[in-house]
Design brief:
It is built from 5 helices and 11 strands; from the N terminus they run H-E-H-E-E-E-E-H-E-E-E-H-H-E-E-E. With about 220 residues, it is of the alpha+beta class.
Length: about 220
């Protein structure tokens, strides 16, 4: 099985640049297709015989559509099945929508999951990077040959963030840091206090500062 984890150092350099910027012009959706049909897809594109059934407010054709992720690393290991490969679809050349797929992982009623997902759907053109924790792309029309190509983990240009979930959290931290003074120290204090409660850290107060110690390491934070 191929690994999608290339060098990680560059991902965080660009995170803030990518937070909440509209991406419809350059976004790609990564979808699984049968490996044996990849040459046919190059030549003819994809009709719904390659798709799946998924009922939501934007699907027609009896719910037939293509489903994909915005980053190959958003897929879990068990989703990489023998005999399948990833292709990338240019979302500027199809009718695509993106919704918050994280609702399907919530411990709530199935009907509520689909209702919340439906409410979250936006067009690919309107989607902003980092907008959703687990973006799920729905493509509702056939894909022409010039809108699809095989994905090559080694030859394709690197995606400038590791996963959509990590980008989402980083964007939230960035936005909160702009809105709330000393946000990062407040967040660290809350985290360290939980570790103190669990008996994993020691805490000492020095007036307007707090000291946290774990093993041989000590950290000094300002009080919020």
């Amino acid at each position: 099985m191929k690994t999608f984890y290339k060098s990680t150092k560059k991902y965080y350099t660009f995170t803030r640049v990518f937070c909440f910027t509209k991406g419809g012009a350059y976004l790609k959706a990564y979808c699984f297709v049968p490996e044996e049909r990849i040459d046919e897809i190059r030549e003819c594109g994809m009709d719904f015989s390659y798709g799946c059934h998924f009922d939501c407010k934007v699907t027609t054709n009896k719910g037939m559509c293509f489903m994909g992720r915005l980053n190959p690393r958003d897929y879990e290991r068990q989703e990489f099945l023998p005999g399948t490969v990833l292709i990338k679809v240019d979302l500027s050349k199809v009718r695509g929508f993106i919704g918050e797929g994280q609702y399907f992982k919530c411990d709530i009623d199935e009907t509520e999951k689909f209702r919340l997902f439906d409410e979250s759907l936006v067009s690919a053109e309107a989607y902003k990077t980092g907008m959703y924790r687990n973006p799920l792309c729905i493509i509702v029309n056939a894909v022409l040959p010039d809108g699809v190509e095989p994905y090559d983990n080694f030859m394709d240009e690197a995606i400038p963030y590791r996963t959509s979930e990590e980008l989402y959290v980083e964007c939230l931290f960035s936005e909160a840091g702009d809105r709330i003074e000393n946000f990062r120290e407040i967040a660290l204090t809350s985290c360290f206090d939980k570790m103190v409660e669990a008996g994993k850290m020691e805490k000492t107060s020095y007036g307007n500062h707090l000291s946290y110690k774990i093993g041989e390491s000590s950290y000094i934070l300002r009080k919020g």
